[in-house]
Amino acid sequence: MSYCVHCGVELDATASFCPLCHTPVLDPAQPVDTVGPKYFPTQRGEVPPVAKQELALLITSMLASVAVCCGILNVFLRPNEGWSLYVIGAAAMLWLWLVPPLLARGMHLLLRLLVDILAVALYVYLIALNLNGRTWFLGLAAPIILWGGAVLLLLGLVLRVYRRSLLSTLTILLGSIGVFLLGVEFFVDRWLYHMWDPSWSLVVLTVCLGLVIPLIVIRRVPSLREEVRRRFHL
């Protein structure tokens, strides 16, 4: 057993230099073992990444098998109830969320958001078909889904500009939540009462604004911004 004369780390018999400080090993009483296997690997190895096509095929096969099995079970168990539509719709929605972005990493934000909205709309439409509720889908669910997609699109475009600031991201996210819920109450009131009488959404929007204003002040004042980053390790 020998040790490095510079840093004192324990050396293997096959080491010709210190693995820590790279000091040459010169020990006349114990020459370097050039025959035995090296203690450390001599070649750098990396785990090969999984091919995107193979991963997409795996996800597709898993979701398809779940959908097909539930569809077959629905035929033999309670065939008058279309409960398998919920599972099939969820599988289709997950496939649209996962596989196209995986195969097309450079997909444009607008196209990716359009695919996500269509996936959610398809799932909700299958639920409406099972419940004989095409009317509420067209009059209530579809407008809310489109409104959520518009808010997400605006959120994504704005976050591209402020993506390096966590405070800016949190500020924009809170404001978007308040605006989205305000629109949700608008569509619900128009569907149920044919008029808009905002109540709970204004409370949520007020709370969001109450949180957004201090965040804006903190971001604008450098001393406060640095103090928050130091306190919360941002």
Automatic annotation (TrEMBL):
Residue ranges crossing the lipid bilayer per the database entry: 55-77, 83-103, 110-129, 135-159, 166-188, 200-221
Keyword entries, A-Z: Membrane, Transmembrane, Transmembrane helix
Pfam families reported for this sequence: DUF6320 (PF19845), Zn_Ribbon_1 (PF13240)
Domain Zinc-ribbon, chain residue ranges per copy: 3-25
Protein name per UniProt: Zinc ribbon domain-containing protein
Organism: Flavonifractor hominis
Lineage: Bacteria, Bacillati, Bacillota, Clostridia, Eubacteriales
